[in-house]
Amino acid sequence: MIDNKDLPIQEYLAVKKEAYYSMILLLVNAVITVGLSFVLLYSGSRQRIFESIMFGSLFLISAFIVRPYWMKKKSFEAQYPELAGISIKGASVPSSYLLKRILVFSGEFILLLVTFNAQYHPVKHQENPNPPVISNNSADSSSSSSSVDSSSEVQSSEEGSKRVVHVPTLGDIEVDLGSIESSSSSEENESEVSANE
After folding, report:
1. Are residues 36 and 50 in contact, defined by beta-carbon separation less than 8 angstroms?
2. Given this model, what pLDDT does residue 110 score?
3. Where are the annotated segments for Disordered (predicted)?
């Protein structure tokens, strides 16, 4: 005959083992969720919907699957304090616990994959095929002109204020910065003359 103390010990060991296994599976699932959330964040995809669904489902699993086992384990330990030190090695888990764990956590993993695939849309960074290019003609002209003529000095000083800007739709445009500066200085001179009169 089986002693009455053997029955709560076997049930306690089964509940304790299931509590530990459920907690481990929940933590593994949470780590995978956090990792995939970082993948979504890095790729520029929408991660808030994914995080809401996954952390909500993890909360439900912890509330309705993991917590009841831990509460049963705590109640056994409150009734029989000598059970707390018993190892779960070699304990058998009833098939109903195992089936529940397999169904819930495989469903959670499928939900994880489906939600991740629905939210993963990496943003492709497109580079401008024709970026604007600004070149300075003064550096080109000063390196190429080695003569010390006064005419070449005047020409290089005139070219020093010119820049070539490449606009993709219009082509190369040469902008004379000297004329802009001289026109602004001539306007200042005219305003000074009119003020003096």
Report:
1. yes
2. 94
3. 126-197
